[in-house]
Amino acid sequence: MAGRKAAGPYNIELFAGSPDDNNAKVFFDGAMDVLKPKIDDGTLKVVSGQTTFEQAVTQGWKAENAQKRMDTLLAGSYTGDIPLDGVLSPNDTLARAIITSVKAAGKDIPIVTGQDSEVESVKSIMAGEQYSTIFKDTVALVDETLAMITALQKGQEPTVNDTESYDNGVKIVPSNLLVPVIVTKENAAEVYADDPTLFPLTQ
Question: Helix crossing, 92-104 with 119-126: angle to 10°?
Fold first, then answer.
């Protein structure tokens, strides 16, 4: 964001996952809880005007669909020297596709988010291209799942910390949510310290 004012406005675009995946809207709505106030006050500007989930979706979570949409957004809204400062991407595969599109258009790579700590995106983060990903510790997920199963087998109440968010159409499903960790180049080695696959990529 060289040369941009510290207070913005910053030009951004929004991507969501596949509309047939319930998680996609959960991710998008969570991000928009944070972004919308900044869009409303002018700090962030979605130059394309595409701010709804329906406009931002990526059918099938396919990289080629995200890349095509980014190509279209760049051609339609970022001609000349109009900068693109940031892109909300709901996972790492789409993040890399977005970066591919931006590079092909000859634009500076914006801040691009991701999720899932995919190997290729961790490499990209360490190379200074993708800005961030999300780490969800599968070991912790397994431990908590086993604890819940064990409690149920014993006729006990499992540990839950959310009784509002997950409506399957029949009931609200009590859940035990673990805290995800945002990973950037600065903290990657620390976050992945116990991961035999990802930690070596940070060295």
Answer: 50
pTM of the predicted structure, to 2 decimals? 0.87
Is the alpha carbon torsion for 197, 198, 201, 203 positive or negative? negative
Per-residue pLDDT tens over the stretch 137-172: 888 999 999 999 999 999 999 999 999 888 888 999
183 φ, ψ (degrees, to nearest 5): -120, 125
Cα dist from 10 to 5, 6, 77, whole Å: 9, 9, 14
Dist. CA 68–CA 66, nearest whole Å: 5
Q: What is the mean pLDDT of residues 174-195?
A: 95
- Range with the poorest average pLDDT among 40-49, 77-86, 100-109, 162-171: 162-171
Q: Are 122 and 134 in contact (CB under 8 A)?
A: no
Burial class (CB in 10 A: 0-12, 13-18, 19+), 14: buried
Domains in the chain and their CATH numbers?
A: 10-135 (3.40.50.2300), 137-179 (no CATH)
Q: What is the CA radius of gyration of the chain?
A: 19
